[in-house]
From TrEMBL:
Domain MoeA N-terminal and linker, first and last residues per copy: 18-181
Gene Ontology MF: a single term: molybdopterin molybdotransferase activity
Pfam family, one: MoCF_biosynth
Annotated organism of origin: marine metagenome
Protein's name according to its UniProt entry: MoaB/Mog domain-containing protein
GO CC terms in record: cytoplasm
Gene3D superfamilies reported for this sequence: MoaB/Mog-like domain, Molybdopterin biosynthesis moea protein, domain 2, Molybdopterin biosynthesis moea protein, domain 3
Matching InterPro entries: MoaB/Mog-like_dom_sf, MoaB/Mog_dom, MoeA-like, MoeA_linker/N, MoeA_linker/N_sf
Domain MoaB/Mog stretches: 195-266
Signal peptide: none
Biological-process GO terms, alphabetical: Mo-molybdopterin cofactor biosynthetic process
SUPFAM superfamilies membership: MoeA N-terminal region -like, Molybdenum cofactor biosynthesis proteins
Length: 266
């Protein structure tokens, strides 16, 4: 279809660039941003700059997975509701504390979920499977070794890869990093972005429309989008439709990225 002389479409561009060519140019002139060290608690939404290995085991001790009684599993073999075995309860252990002694055969420790399993014990008997009376319990059911015990490194093993380079960190990732004691991590620096808003007809946001001039609304939309997608808005320039001024701004910028909007209706 031959365009009529009165048709001004596409005459506003000196040259059109195919999408594939444009993408190649972007790739050619793009570069990796440097890393920066920030507090882990501030890293949600940031891009991880390096692979993270766990410096510790989680848990770093054998811990109870149930409320009940820590004891030697082999000593419970043969216990039934018809043939209960008697164990002396010699203490109690709760999360954040340890039992200092060593359990002997026929002894048990009252233990809460998350508490460290004491030395001499290798299983936890659920409270429902015991009857307590006068500092003793009657064991009504045998338990196998390791029952209801969370082992060292069960959740995370030391030197295990936690997160890989390039990951966009989620809140739950931050929780994992905090759980292994990482207070600071390296993330990719946020790209600094400048907005170049062009148009003789534009007023700055906050001004009132007047006559044939309209208020720029693009910048107030793009600013939160830049923030949402991980950028850092450095400056907003409002420039008239002047090619020399546009070239001047583009040549002097030290931003990582310049977003220019305006002058594309034809």
């Amino acid at each position: 279809m031959k365009m009529q002389k009165s048709d001004v479409r596409m005459r506003g561009f000196l040259k059109r660039t195919p999408v594939n060519t444009l993408l190649s140019l972007v790739k050619k002139h793009s570069h990796l941003l440097p890393a920066e060290d920030i507090p882990t608690v501030e890293a949600s939404g940031r891009i991880l700059a390096e692979e993270i290995l766990s410096p510790v085991n989680v848990p770093d001790f054998d811990r109870s997975a149930m409320d009940g009684y820590a004891l030697n599993a082999e000593a419970t073999f043969g216990a039934t509701s018809y043939n209960p075995l008697m164990f002396k309860v010699v203490g109690q252990v709760t999360p954040g504390e340890s039992y200092k002694g060593v359990l002997k055969p026929g002894e048990a420790i009252s233990i809460m979920t998350g508490a460290p399993v004491p030395s001499g014990a290798n299983a936890v008997l659920m409270a429902e499977n015991a009857e307590f009376s006068n500092d003793h319990i009657q064991v009504l059911e045998a338990v196998p070794p390791g029952k209801h015990v969370g082992k060292v490194g069960e959740d995370i093993k030391k030197n295990q890869t936690l997160l890989r380079q390039g990951r966009c960190l989620r809140p739950q990732d931050i929780a994992v990093l905090a759980s292994v004691g990482l207070t600071n991590i390296k993330v990719v620096r946020k790209p600094e972005v400048e907005l170049l808003i062009t148009g003789n007809e534009l007023l700055k946001p906050g001004e009132q429309p007047c006559g044939v001039q309209i208020v720029d609304s693009n910048s107030v939309m793009l600013a939160p989008l830049i923030k949402r997608d991980g950028g850092l808005l450095a400056k907003v320039h409002h420039v008239p439709d002047d090619r020399d001024l546009l070239q001047q701004h583009l040549s002097k910028t030290d931003a990582d990225l310049v977003c220019m909007t305006g002058g594309t209706s034809v």
